[in-house]
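Researcher: Good morning. I'm working through a list of sequences from a screen, and I'd like to move beyond sequence-only analysis. For each chain I'm collecting a predicted structure so we can compare shapes side by side. This is the next one on the list. No need for commentary yet; just the structure.
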Amino acid sequence: MAEIRKVASLVRVMLRTFSLNIAFASSRGKKERKAVSAVLLIVVLAVSLGPLAYAAGYMILNAYDALSVLGIESLILEGFTSIAAMVIFLFGIANVMAVFYYAGDTERYLTLPVKPTTILSAKLITTVIYEYIVCALMVLPVYILYGVRSGAGAVFYLYSVAGCLLLPVIP
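Model: Good morning. Structure tokens for this chain:
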């Protein structure tokens, strides 16, 4: 049980370290500068990705309308799930390289009073969490738009979440 706590603690540290390195790579200074850069990063991402998300949603809804006339609207889910599987695989390769090889933090973690298998487990879990984040950002909006447009029930959304959980593991 103690090893599980150590793995969980290391995962939290790795997740925080990775996200903070991305958010604050340019501002290594005072806390105020870091907070301002974090808010600025969120605003820039929202402004730049907002129109893209709107266009993608508009495209999905129009595709649903066009394909529902032919009775093949499920192609939307199949197509986006296939594309997401490929993107998750490619991001997974880059993520594994970043977390396992290029992170440069392994030497620091080895000085901690934990076993190397604990460090390896924490790195693996961190990689899996990043994969689920990519999967959720890519697949769940499509599933939600499809479910809303088709008037699907709660079972569809449960299957959608289950599919999103299985997609990084079983493409």
